[in-house]
Design goal:
The protein is mainly beta. Helices cover about 5% and strands about 55% of the residues.
């Protein structure tokens, strides 16, 4: 269904698993580079511990205990040639992280110039930003937000603009995570996953939403639920791209079984809101058996049916980043 034409190994780390193409020479990646990232304590102390039953369904807060936040996700750049990772540099001197947040799942857009505003030097990156106090599951699923960072010096340094989509996501008050941003006309569309809980109990499965912003990347225009053809599993950790007159969406398959994080599905749409399976029903783009696959990114190439697919494979306590070149042939 999707034959390989090339397979490149990009690098390995403890848990850097979410990629974003910057400029052909560099990737932006999120997660933990090494065990120091994973264990490094943050300044935040949460005054309770979330405890759940054996099934992880009924949870509550135990205020007799407290926990210090550790292992803040952070951002790195990956040099393709040397395969070296460098912490992202913010304009205020912070390297790779922001106090009070876990940062991950970056998605880059270059906005268009419009209405007399020259945005040719703008780089906008939408990313998951989980406040430290909600790092315990299932609070971590409901309280994810989407933040925005920007650069105007060719991605050498970045400014942190803060939260763009909060708990109040204009849809279900379930926050948003793993954003995928694209430019469509004079707008920027951000696809993300949301899931709402009640009293720390899951009340509905994850949903995918599309949030529309004006060309400046921050002025809110509206939000809609993404619709899938009847019977199709919902995708999460999605990446959406537009090419060949079609919207392509790749992501982990939420089919109600643990295998959802061991394969990727590919859906397509002509309007960016109603999606159908690209191939035959039930057919996956990639099925890795028992190897866990994480956070895919799909980029078009100059050849109409050829794409680059980047993803992480989790194995033996480490994450390995790969880039495949695939041909989408049925």
């Amino acid at each position: 269904m999707a034959p390989f034409t090339a397979n490149s190994f990009l690098g390995s780390s403890l848990a850097l698993y979410s990629t974003c193409e910057l400029d052909g020479a560099r990737l932006l990646v999120g997660g933990w580079y090494d065990s120091a990232d994973f264990t490094r304590p943050a300044s935040t102390v949460v005054p309770y511990v979330v405890v759940c039953d054996a099934n992880g369904a009924n949870c509550s807060r135990d205020y007799s205990r407290q926990v210090r936040v550790t292992g803040q996700d952070r951002l790195y750049t990956l040099d393709r040639t040397t395969r070296t990772f460098s912490p992202l540099r913010f304009t205020d001197g912070q390297l790779g992280l922001r106090d009070g947040y876990h940062l991950n799942d970056p998605s880059l857009v270059r906005p268009i110039s419009s209405n007399g505003v020259d945005r040719s030097s703008w780089w906008l990156v939408y990313l998951t930003c989980l406040p430290d106090q909600y790092f315990q599951y299932p609070e971590s699923a409901e309280h994810n937000r989407v933040c925005l960072i920007t650069s105007s010096d060719n991605a050498k340094t970045w400014s942190f603009l803060g939260e763009l989509i909060g708990d109040d996501n204009h849809f279900n008050h379930g926050g948003a995570w793993s954003p995928s941003a694209i430019v469509v006309g004079n707008e920027i569309w951000v696809y993300s996953t949301t899931q709402s809980f009640q009293n720390l109990a899951v009340v509905r499965p994850p949903q995918l939403i599309r949030t529309r912003f004006a060309a400046d990347g921050v002025s809110f225009l509206g939000v809609d639920a993404v619709a899938f053809t009847a019977g199709l599993p919902v995708l999460t950790n999605v990446d959406v791209k537009y090419a060949n007159g079609m919207f392509y969406m790749v992501g982990n398959t939420l089919d109600g079984t643990p295998s959802g994080f061991y394969d990727f599905s590919l859906y397509v749409s002509t309007d960016g809101i109603h999606f159908r399976n690209w191939a035959a029903p039930g057919q996956r783009l990639v099925n890795a058996g028992q190897a866990q696959l994480l956070t895919p990114e799909l980029d078009p190439t100059a050849i109409s049916d050829q794409f680059h697919l980047r993803f992480a494979q989790a194995s033996a306590g480490n994450d390995y980043l790969f880039e495949w070149t695939i041909r989408l042939q049925r």
